[in-house]
Amino acid sequence: MSTSQPSVSIVVPVRNEADNIAPLIAEIGAALDGRWPYEIIYVNDGSTDATGERLAAIMKQRSNLRQLRHARSGGQSAAVRSGVRAARGEIVATLDGDGQNNPAFLPDLIAAVEKGAGRVGLAAGQRVGRKDTGFKKFQSRVANGVRNAILKDGTRDTGCGLKAFRRDVFLMLPYFDGLHRFLPALVRREGYDIAYVDVIDRPRHSGVSNYGFFDRLWIGIMDLAGVWWLIRRKKPTPEVTEVNA
User: Fold this and answer.
1) pTM higher than 0.90, yes or no?
2) Closest listed residue to residue 122, CA positions, set 177, 83, 68, 180
3) Could you report how far apart the first and last alpha carbons of the chain are, in Å?
4) Are 140 and 62 in contact (CB under 8 A)?
5) I want to staple 21 with a disulfide (CB 3.0 to 4.6 A). Which of 38, 44, 54, 120 is the partner?
6) pLDDT one-digit tens code per residue, 57-67
7) Distance between CA atoms of 215 and 66, rounded to whole angstroms?
8) Closest to 175 measured CA to CA, from 85, 43, 50
9) In what order do the strands lie in the sheet with 193-200?
């Protein structure tokens, strides 16, 4: 396992996912070993179970595994942001820590950003064959439909945790709670293209959802209005050159 400077950082936000830690890390390794120098950053978002202890045990065996801990839960967007800020790779990929996102799709997402040659700021997973209940899938369709009608971001599924993006592009975006739900619209706002990769959803390994019902399914009206305003107020980024004496 390489300890060199990583070119890719995998960020996994988790809260109370102790039983899902080891299987998911093994799958990430199987997907990425030998492809890129990479690191795995778990952001322990105020877990009260054995999540921290499980991560600490695996860190003794895996030199490219890091753990960040929030003293109290700040939510999924805050956890992703903490991980991206700490990342050492130029490309960051994210996935949920419950096992529903299959790490086997990470190489396709990372490659899509690389092949974009600077034009692609985000590669977004688009779930097919979702394993949620019919009611949850219905709510997601409504939420995605409303968001797309207003923002016209061309994305059918912003709720998929499987994403890859340029670290510098993410860090130039305005931060707010729920940011991860609006990444396609905000990345387009900065003038970058979006690549889409179909990914296959699967049931979580164990446990229950730890991020809120509304956080998963309903787009906050104020957040939606705020992102719409940001897009409307965006001016073209000036081309800047330095003039030497």
Assistant:
1) no
2) 180
3) 48
4) no
5) 54
6) 999 999 999 99
7) 26
8) 85
9) 65-70, 38-45, 8-14, 91-94, 163-166, 120-128, 193-200
